[in-house]
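Handout, section B. The chain below has 245 residues.
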Amino acid sequence: MLALVLAFAINAGSQCSAVERLAGLCSVTNTGTTVEVGATRPGGGTDGTDATDATDDAPPADPLLRTPAGCGGLRGEGCYSVEVVREPAMSDLASFAPAPLALGDEPGGVGLVGMPVNFVVDAHGHEQTGTLFDLPVAVRFTPEAVLFSYGDGATRTAADGGRSWGELGLASFSATSTSHAYSARGSYTASAAVRYSASVDFGRGPVAVPGWLEIPTGTSEVRVFEVRTALVDRTCIEDPAASGC
């Protein structure tokens, strides 16, 4: 108990203020010549015991605030154990990461020299719940870009994973935002990586996590052929010995 005793000559109107009386912070003894003002620490009586029941006016439950037993009674004040959650890094979210996606190509494993081959990654948002730092959390990943590597040294960063020719309403071998035209025949291994941003929500709203997470896709093998044309009088079936047959 913290106590303070003051002795002084009393004037006719000397007394504790109305606020102090209502708050129960002082008791007044008037001896006629002196006044003793006894003050105790809020939350305790003059004998060191709690002035009110510990459960009175207790604050609402909060997953990040822990109130130990015996705290929190008098006029809304209390003692708290505050659990500080450190800022998550991308490395903390490994167990929540999206699975690798497939890399598709059109017209399907083949291409022609100088003609676009269309590559598509079905990138979409991914959300998962679990426990992080011993607290329940929801983690959301949002695709922000797709990085394409076409296997011949050429690369491209696209805003999304692209769409098929059919979805775009385009004819085969049309150029798209994710397509690539090979300049020489041969076999190529194309690949891509989806770049995600992330946010975490501990029940108080989403908070962005600094940085990016790049998840590689599967690969796609493309065989590129060269097409040669010639004007002939008859087809090779009609004249197997003709030029180009």
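Note. The CA atoms of residues 73 and 235 lie 99 Å apart. Compare this with the example in section A.
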